Amino acid sequence: MTTLHYTQTVVIVRAPLVVDRYGNETSERDWSSATRTTVRRVSVQPDTSTEDDGDRPAVTTGLRLTTRRGVDIDLTPGDRVVAVGRLLETDGDVARWVVGGRLHHVEARLKEVAG
User: CA-CA distance, 66 to 81, in Å (whole number)?
Assistant: First the structure.
């Protein structure tokens, strides 16, 4: 992997979990209280996309975020990412590739559903 490909900047958007009236965390996120963290020198490339033409047509666009060698980022499932002018959701777990006992790089699938 060459560093020439890692020229993009993204913003990680993380919202806290909503606490119910009994003080318990729910699985719902409070996006109005989200924090934003800028991450530079990553690569965001196209991934698989699908179309659904059922009762409610929708297009799911997939992108893949990759870090440089040896670089970890604070990205978790449930976070959103602003990249290439789009607000995307983290799609599944964030993969942290380890080679020889050391972090090699991080990859995350991102998706946007329209429709």
Answer: 13
pTM given for the model: 0.86
In which domain, by residue range, is 95 found?
3-114
Structure tokens at 71: 């670089």
HSE-CB at 112 with a 13 A cutoff on CA atoms is 14
Report, as an integer, the average pLDDT of 48-76. 92
Structurally, how many domains does the chain consist of? 1
Residues 29-61 have pLDDT tens digits of: 999 999 999 999 999 999 988 888 878 888 999
- Please give the structure tokens belonging to residue 15: 């919202």
Contact 16, 26 (CB under 8 A): no
CATH of the domain at 87: 2.40.10
